[in-house]
Design a protein that fits this description.
The structure is a homodimer of 344-residue chains.
Chain A (H helix, E strand, L loop, with lengths): L4 H8 L3 H8 L7 H14 L5 H8 L4 E5 L5 H16 L3 E5 L8 H10 L4 E4 L7 H10 L4 E4 L10 E6 L1 H15 L3 E6 L6 H14 L5 E6 L10 H7 L7 E4 L2 H13 L9 E6 L12 E4 L2 H20 L10 E4 L2 E3 L11
Parallel strand pairs in A: 1-2, 1-3, 3-4, 4-5, 5-11, 6-7, 6-8, 8-9, 9-10
Antiparallel strand pairs in A: 10-12
Helix pairs in contact in A: 1-2, 1-3, 5-12, 6-7, 8-9, 10-11
Chain A binds a DNA duplex (16 and 16 nucleotides) through α2 and α4.
Chain lengths: 344, 344
DNA sequence: CTGAAAGCGCTTACAG
DNA sequence: CTGAAAGCGCTTACAG
């Protein structure tokens, strides 16, 4: 069906090996025959079979991507990854946590069986990644963690994500500078997630100032949205916090809504800070003060790190570079949801 | 490195072909040796090389997926696809429109070169898909269109999406029943998109009732969010519409915001209906009346249709089934953004 | 019922 | 500088 090297070889009157070499980069074939072969290949619409090349060269130009999609943040992460990959003719096989078939190990094997050159993984949910990653590392397949750092900082696994601690400190400073002293933090469950890291860093930062209080609440994630319960609990405190740090824009939005339900005005009665600067919330009322992340750039950078590792593995020149952990800085975006506390 | 059939054959003292047959389904090997071979395979941790199997059998257990991610709707679409695929040990190579590398044809070749068994495609943006799809169809690779129907209804391309016309009619009926007669429709650019189809169907439905007016406006999509300009233009009409149909939840949200900016109350001064029932907007204020879609089910169904076509192709029993076009019904969800017009 | 051989479409040593 | 051969790890006719 498809055109093969053999077809070209027959038309050109040379061996199949000669065609393979002519089409390859290692200019081993004289200019004139080479041009002739190339022309025939083009005319016939030749396309290499990447499966065979993969077997032969040990490179499939394919990576595995393990991540879930829920928000616009995730979408941008993917766009960045896709952008870096397509620059180098790579494509991703994308697998996500599936409630019915939660077997991560099987997914990893599914990637390995297809001989992916590397794996990009966003290690969310409670999975014990350290165990599952064994299979990948044994095969010598590079792995990069995306957005969420793997708890046991394995020396073979690079990381690319956000400087959550710095971001949370900046948010804390913003609110402290405005004069706030009673804080609430709205967090999510898993201690490994960026959200938790932010929440802890925020609490540390405000606690370093005398005369402050800071109460942390958890917000339940039902798989699709956050519940309002955590936000309500914070607003029911006596005395009520004057400022609440939402560890993501989405939980921050639940605070705004809960305040609205109680007739509290943001920012007059309550200041709210989010984290991410997701576009979808840019039109929220009031507009949200937040720490801007650049998920596209995180995705792009992470994919590049992975591609570099893959190259490194094939050009066995020097010894491999040490583990890299890139943490991108966030930027404070002040909008209408923060103000000095009432009566200050 | 990896365990091969040869390794197993040596340990078992049989030929490599025997191992291949023993591991396959066609019980051609006697029970006792077969069990022995299976045990050795398990002990050695044998995993088949799917690249080789792909070359050999013509099936890679891999499909190509061409779609962009932006909203939660897209994420659910993907979840549904993933769910159906993983049921059958399939994985998707996911490619999306990339502003810098917009060459769809190259992406298609990139999939074909990797010998995907089928392609699932969401034919958004202005691309002339009919042309690009040639390359796929020539190879005999099945294609299913997802969510957006390809304009020229090619007989080889199945479709799975939403019954937009029925949904728009239902929305129109809801507002007409409430007593509205002056309508606005907020739409998006491309006439092939579901949004446009909904807008037209809505206008038709209300125009079928005497004494109604219906003005359509376009809302600009800046690649990440919708601008408010279209919504403002509708609110500036004299007389102002009493009800606006947003052809997606996101544009409906811009209407609510624009109304808010003008001090108009929803639903007292203005009724707004959305389309999709995206979770992220369930917490909007006021909560939005909308036509609920089930993107998970659309994705799942579309992927199943594709897998069926792939099977059909390999089990050349009967002649192929005719083109299928599945349009899922939507459900009207009445919330707080719709009410009878003022003064009625 | 089982083994030896051919073949899938390439690349890469190895001879001339 | 070029051709013929071997090999990647499988599956599937084809002989015994």
């Amino acid at each position: 069906m498809a055109v093969t090297l053999k077809d070209i070889a027959e038309q050109a009157g040379v061996s199949q090996a000669a065609v393979s070499i002519a089409l390859g980069s290692s200019g081993r074939i004289s200019g004139t025959t080479r041009d002739r072969i190339l022309k025939i290949a083009t005319d016939l619409g030749y396309r290499p079979n990447l499966l065979v090349q993969g077997i032969q060269t040990g490179r499939t130009q394919t990576i595995g991507l393990l991540m879930n999609f829920a928000s616009a943040f995730d979408a941008h992460l993917f766009d960045g990854i896709h952008n870096a990959l397509s620059d180098q003719q790579y494509v991703p096989i994308v697998l996500c946590r599936d409630d019915d078939h939660g077997n991560v190990l099987e997914q990893i094997h599914s990637l390995l069986d297809r001989r992916v050159d590397g794996v990009l993984i966003r290690p969310t949910d409670g999975t014990v990644w350290e165990d599952h990653l064994e299979a990948i590392l044994q095969r010598g397949v590079p792995v990069v963690a995306l957005d969420v750092e793997i708890q046991a900082k394995m020396p073979q696994i690079d990381f690319c994500g956000t400087d959550d601690i710095h971001g949370a400190h900046t948010a804390a400073k913003h609110l402290l500078d405005l004069g706030h002293r009673r804080f609430g933090v709205l967090n999510s469950g898993d201690p490994r997630t960026p959200m938790s890291i932010r929440g802890q860093a925020f609490a540390e930062a405000v606690n370093a100032t005398k005369g402050t209080t800071c109460v942390t609440q958890l917000s339940a994630w039902n798989g699709r949205t956050y519940e309002n319960d955590g936000a309500r609990a914070l607003l029911d405190l006596t005395p009520r916090p004057t400022a609440i740090f939402g560890t993501s824009d989405n939980v921050a939005a639940t605070v705004v809504h809960a305040a609205d339900d109680r007739g509290l005005s943001v920012p007059d009665d309550l200041s709210v800070v989010g984290f991410s600067d997701t576009e979808i919330l840019r039109s929220s009322r009031p507009t949200l003060t937040t720490m801007r992340q650049d998920p596209f750039e995180i995705g792009r950078r992470a994919a590049k790190m992975l591609l570099d590792r893959i190259d490194e593995k094939h050009n066995r020149t020097a010894s491999p570079a040490p583990r890299q952990a890139v943490r991108q800085k966030t930027e404070l975006v002040v909008r209408k949801s923060t103000a000095p506390p009432a009566g200050s």
